[in-house]
Amino acid sequence: MERGKMAEAESLETAAEHERILREIESTDTACIGPTLRSVYDGEEHGRFMEKLETRIRNHDREIEKMCNFHYQGFVDSITELLKVRGEAQKLKNQVTDTNRKLQHEGKELVIAMEELKQCRLQQRNISATVDKLMLCLPVLEMYSKLRDQMKTKRHYPALKTLEHLEHTYLPQVSHYRFCKVMVDNIPKLREEIKDVSMSDLKDFLESIRKHSDKIGETAMKQAQQQRNLDNIILQQPRIGSKRKFKKDAYTIFDTEIESTSPKSEQDSGILDVEDEEDDEEVPGAQDLVDFSPVYRCLHIYSVLGARETFENYYRKQRRKQARLVLQPPSNMHETLDGYRKYFNQIVGFFVVEDHILHTTQGLVNRAYIDELWEMALSKTIAALRTHSSYCSDPNLVLDLKNLIVLFADTLQVYGFPVNQLFDMLLEIRDQYSETLLKKWAGIFRNILDSDNYSPIPVTSEEMYKKVVGQFPFQDTELEKQPFPKKFPFSEFVPKVYNQIKEFIYACLKFSEDLHLSSTEVDDMIRKSTNLLLTRTLSNSLQNVIKRKNIGLTELVQIIINTTHLEKSCKYLEEFITNITNVLPETVHTTKLYGTTTFKDARHAAEEEIYTNLNQKIDQFLQLADYDWMTGDLGNKASDYLVDLIAFLRSTFAVFTHLPGKVAQTACMSACKHLATSLMQLLLEAEVRQLTLGALQQFNLDVRECEQFARSGPVPGFQEDTLQLAFIDLRQLLDLFIQWDWSTYLADYGQPNCKYLRVNPVTALTLLEKMKDTSRKNNMFAQFRKNERDKQKLIDTVAKQLRGLVSSHHS
């Protein structure tokens, strides 16, 4: 039952669904009927649906048939009318066809004209579009053409600016064109080309300033010299106006327009041509000679390209290399001043350029970099100057070098470089300068001393007298009162030496100029150098003259007189130094001149040489002595050699009248003592083995001649018989033997007031032995004579007693 109900319900649902599908088929467009039919076939009741569909079709056919039957008469009428209309339509068609044919025939030219108009309108539209596109492209092409022209004329910085505008402003507007793509591809290449060309210009600039550094430095040093001369003029004249600056303001003299279109400014890569000015024209500024535009252009170009750091590193590296080349002195620099000048010019030129770059660019070089270069330059320059100046032996060259170094230091100081070390080094060179001066003056003194005649200066007129007094500070009222002709006590070398000492002081003063030293330091330097001149150079020259082998007593006497006057002139030298340095000698730490010591030492050496020379002359005369020690004849006059010796001594001591009294007395006493000692040695020498009383008598005559000379007072100032005491030993010895007063000698020996106090028993024994041997040899038959035997016995007895005295003396 239930199953039947369910089947019935399902059939009802199926019937309703089929009904719905049929309604959709009836109402739906045939193009969209597919999904509806698909739903039929998706189900299982399509057979029943087909049945219903057939039933519905039959129903509609019946309705159509009914409707046709109802409207059939109207349909027939309509067909009839339609057939009538067809005929009219055929007529109308023929008329239209004919009209169309006529129209086509008549409008053929118009169609052709319209086609031509169409083509013109199309061309016009294309031309307009082309013009619009060309208007966009022309600025690009113009900028590119401008870029190529700028590249061709080497205006690289404007070219770089043009390239920037082209890349960022113009090319983006026409980027879809193929030629723009080519341009875009070329832009990096153009940038590199600009970089390379600007770097090439920079290299040319660096090479140019390297070659012309000496010219730049020379100009800067000339300008510094002009400024210093101007300062000196201002110091010497009243200050009317303010002092002119040496360093020019703000470097406007060499600022160039980077984007200038001038071919000269673009192509110039270094040194501008400057005609040689006359001496009276103003020297151009050192930087006026240099066109720095290549550096500025290259710096701007690399900055724009984002490679500024690369450019800075390259520039500094290259300049460091150039600095090392500039600071390398030539091997023969010390030979001429021009060698030093060129060396300094190159250094000054280098740092003038760097200083200008420092002040006209932002960061290309900085103060630390400049200071580093200057420290290196300063150390290398000082080392080079120390080395090369040590080879210099000409004081004039050293002085010129000093002036050049001062100018070099002053020039660089103007540009802000510290130069204290250079002035410190000049103090070292000052010592070397002093040494070269001392060597030069040693030659001058040697020539003066060698050419001097060592004779008092004769003057025959007041003019000659004043000339000598003007050269040497000498005052003598007695000499002034004497009539002409008259003589100065000193020889020509005194005023010459005095003036040369003053010239030496002037030479020392010249070196101290412009060294920024105080007057006290200058005074101390001059005094120390002058002391070296006096105590070493002049002293050695005098000593060499004094020690010469062929020096005569007259020359030695004149040297003593000359040194005495030079010693007195030392106070005038002190005053001379005080006047030129304005430092009073009473100032604390003022060095005193040692001239008095020098001349005293020279005088003492001359005195000693006089004593030695006199003794040598005496020895030469004594070598002429020819005693016959075995003679038995009694002579009645002194030996010829001794007479000549005494005559020589008299004439020599007569020359000593201008010597200080003590010197003459010492020389006379020394000569007499040496003569007495030499005569004693002559009597006692071992070669004289035997002598006779007659020979002793002759010797006694010679001694008496010497004593007579001593009593005659050859040199004033001796008291009574003081000079005779030089011969007292000989006198007592000869008296003892000639008087044969042995009993007195032996009896009084050892007593302070004995008659033969100066007779040494050894000397007496030696001489007695010589006489004893002679007596034995010459008296073969003496043993047969009683007197001779007694005399021989007495000699033996005396000799024995003398030996006893000698033995007791030694014990």
UniProtKB/TrEMBL annotation:
Superkingdom of source: Eukaryota
Function text: Component of the exocyst complex involved in the docking of exocytic vesicles with fusion sites on the plasma membrane.
One GO process term, biological-process aspect: Golgi to plasma membrane transport
Keywords: Coiled coil, Exocytosis, Transport
PANTHER family the UniProt entry points to: EXOCYST COMPLEX COMPONENT 6B, SEC15
Protein name, UniProt field: Exocyst complex component
Coiled-coil intervals: 82-109
Keyword Cell membrane: no
Sequence similarity: Belongs to the SEC15 family.
GO CC annotation terms, alphabetical: exocyst; plasma membrane
Region (Disordered): 258-280
Domain Exocyst complex subunit EXOC6/Sec15 C-terminal span(s) in chain numbering: 421-770
Gene name in the database record: EXOC6B
One Pfam assignment: EXOC6_Sec15_N
Organism field: Vicugna pacos (Alpaca)
Limits of the Exocyst complex component EXOC6/Sec15 N-terminal domain: 52-221
